[in-house]
Amino acid sequence: MTESLAITRFSDLANPTRFLSLAGRIIPWLAGLTLCLFAIGLYLSFTTEGDYQQGETVRIMYVHVPAAWLSMMCYTVMALSAIGTLVWRHPLADVSHKAAAPLGAAFTLIALATGSLWGKPMWGTWWVWDARLTSVFVLFLMYLGLIALNRAMDDPSKAARLSAVLILVGFVNIPIIKFSVEWWNTLHQPASVVRLDGPTIDPEFLIPLLVMAVAFTFLFFTLHLMAMRNEIWRRRVGAQRRMAARMAGRGT
Amino acid sequence: MMTLLVRDLKLSVRAGGGALIGVLFFMTVVAVIPFGVGPDLNLLSRIGPAIVWIGALLSALLGLDRLFQTEREDGSLDLILMQEHPLVLTVLVKCLAHWIANCLPLVIASPLLGLFMNMSEVAIGAVALTLLVGSPALTFIGAVGAAVAVALPRGGLLVSILVLPLAIPVLIFGVSASYAAVEDPAPFMPPFLILSAITLFFAVLGPLGAALALRNGGD
């Protein structure tokens, strides 16, 4: 009973008007929460001591690591939406993965840029062709390719279905990114927060990092909802323009 | 299925020498490299396997947009979509035909280019062998891109952009296997086996994805 109720709730959202009203109610709260979390996270990350070896540059971690996590989570969200597009033909899933692609590209770019800024003092180079760096760069290229594909198509629903196929095929890259540091033992350090035997990172760094990660996640969801809302509005404006053009054509 | 294979092969051989253009492009790309890095034979023999692999990768991408495009133009794509055979099998056969017509000539041409690059006999053999095993993966990955871009008026460039990131693992293991054959400490088998595994993996995933895209992209 509850399950069928949940399914009806979910398919209720397929109505864009309902989604818009829900999004309108949620977005201010999400945005407020994001701001608070960022305030706390930034305060914490600037008041903790620097690392005894890395000095002040360790603070780059509080931006770099959450952005890198988000770049992978965004692709996962897109893959889930792609399944929604192909299996249930859920109209919001189309909008969802189209809206998420630029966000994912932005987070990946932040992760790459901060990583390279951090790499210069720590490793002595801006860029190495290490397994983790290369696979994240591939992820960035895939985001850009998906954006290009979406732009190249006229029909939005067809573009959504085709890019959904491509998203699902490209999903093989996500496990490669996650485990690249363990399979190829190269320069980038292995995972130190999410691991079976507990985090190996000092709580002093862990707490600001986690707060920043949650803040980034909320930022992603806020921006994602806003981008989806914009996309629905854009489609409505397009439809109304076409209708107006048709009416005008009939009038003369 | 055999008829389809033979038909595709005949079409690609007779319709304006598509395979020949691929090989020519391959030779041109490889021939341009010495102009860029200078005619230092030691350097060329060191980077040779990588150059031959990159050239093969680029020329394999070159012919990909023709995989479904001509079928769409003359309408036989709709017939293929409507027939009773599973579409995945049809796509697999079309990929095989495309590979025989376009990638196999590259594999055959690669020893000659290896000679140009002053590579040792072992390296030439290793490059030809890894290309033989790895290039089907390129075709299978490319089939997804070609199927996605088939509805686009000029999808050729977009196919390359979409497919290249996915083809990087093939390149990595192909090149590392070729180097492992020449340089002593690194063993040849592990990267070679991983390369075979990638090919088999994409032999399943590629036709599935391409069939899905063709079904969804139909008008």
From TrEMBL, chain A:
<keyword id="KW-1133">Transmembrane helix</keyword>
<feature type="transmembrane region" description="Helical">
    <location>
        <begin position="26"/>
        <end position="46"/>
    </location>
</feature>
<feature type="transmembrane region" description="Helical">
    <location>
        <begin position="205"/>
        <end position="226"/>
    </location>
</feature>
<protein>
    <recommendedName>
        <fullName>Heme exporter protein C</fullName>
    </recommendedName>
</protein>
<feature type="domain" description="Cytochrome c assembly protein">
    <location>
        <begin position="11"/>
        <end position="188"/>
    </location>
</feature>
<feature type="transmembrane region" description="Helical">
    <location>
        <begin position="162"/>
        <end position="185"/>
    </location>
</feature>
<dbReference type="InterPro" id="IPR003557">
    <property type="entry name" value="Cyt_c_biogenesis_CcmC"/>
</dbReference>
<keyword id="KW-0812">Transmembrane</keyword>
<keyword id="KW-1003">Cell membrane</keyword>
<dbReference type="Pfam" id="PF01578">
    <property type="entry name" value="Cytochrom_C_asm"/>
</dbReference>
<feature type="transmembrane region" description="Helical">
    <location>
        <begin position="131"/>
        <end position="150"/>
    </location>
</feature>
<keyword id="KW-0201">Cytochrome c-type biogenesis</keyword>
<comment type="similarity">
    <text>Belongs to the CcmC/CycZ/HelC family.</text>
</comment>
<feature type="transmembrane region" description="Helical">
    <location>
        <begin position="66"/>
        <end position="88"/>
    </location>
</feature>
<keyword id="KW-0472">Membrane</keyword>
<comment type="function">
    <text>Required for the export of heme to the periplasm for the biogenesis of c-type cytochromes.</text>
</comment>
<dbReference type="InterPro" id="IPR002541">
    <property type="entry name" value="Cyt_c_assembly"/>
</dbReference>
<feature type="transmembrane region" description="Helical">
    <location>
        <begin position="100"/>
        <end position="119"/>
    </location>
</feature>
<dbReference type="InterPro" id="IPR045062">
    <property type="entry name" value="Cyt_c_biogenesis_CcsA/CcmC"/>
</dbReference>
<keyword id="KW-0813">Transport</keyword>
<keyword id="KW-0997">Cell inner membrane</keyword>
Automatic annotation (TrEMBL), chain B:
<keyword id="KW-0997">Cell inner membrane</keyword>
<keyword id="KW-1003">Cell membrane</keyword>
<dbReference type="Pfam" id="PF03379">
    <property type="entry name" value="CcmB"/>
</dbReference>
<feature type="transmembrane region" description="Helical">
    <location>
        <begin position="192"/>
        <end position="214"/>
    </location>
</feature>
<feature type="transmembrane region" description="Helical">
    <location>
        <begin position="85"/>
        <end position="110"/>
    </location>
</feature>
<feature type="transmembrane region" description="Helical">
    <location>
        <begin position="43"/>
        <end position="64"/>
    </location>
</feature>
<keyword id="KW-0813">Transport</keyword>
<dbReference type="InterPro" id="IPR026031">
    <property type="entry name" value="Cyt_c_CcmB_bac"/>
</dbReference>
<keyword id="KW-0812">Transmembrane</keyword>
<comment type="function">
    <text>Required for the export of heme to the periplasm for the biogenesis of c-type cytochromes.</text>
</comment>
<comment type="similarity">
    <text>Belongs to the CcmB/CycW/HelB family.</text>
</comment>
<feature type="transmembrane region" description="Helical">
    <location>
        <begin position="157"/>
        <end position="180"/>
    </location>
</feature>
<keyword id="KW-1133">Transmembrane helix</keyword>
<keyword id="KW-0472">Membrane</keyword>
<feature type="transmembrane region" description="Helical">
    <location>
        <begin position="12"/>
        <end position="37"/>
    </location>
</feature>
<protein>
    <recommendedName>
        <fullName>Heme exporter protein B</fullName>
    </recommendedName>
</protein>
<feature type="transmembrane region" description="Helical">
    <location>
        <begin position="122"/>
        <end position="150"/>
    </location>
</feature>
<dbReference type="InterPro" id="IPR003544">
    <property type="entry name" value="Cyt_c_biogenesis_CcmB"/>
</dbReference>
<keyword id="KW-0201">Cytochrome c-type biogenesis</keyword>
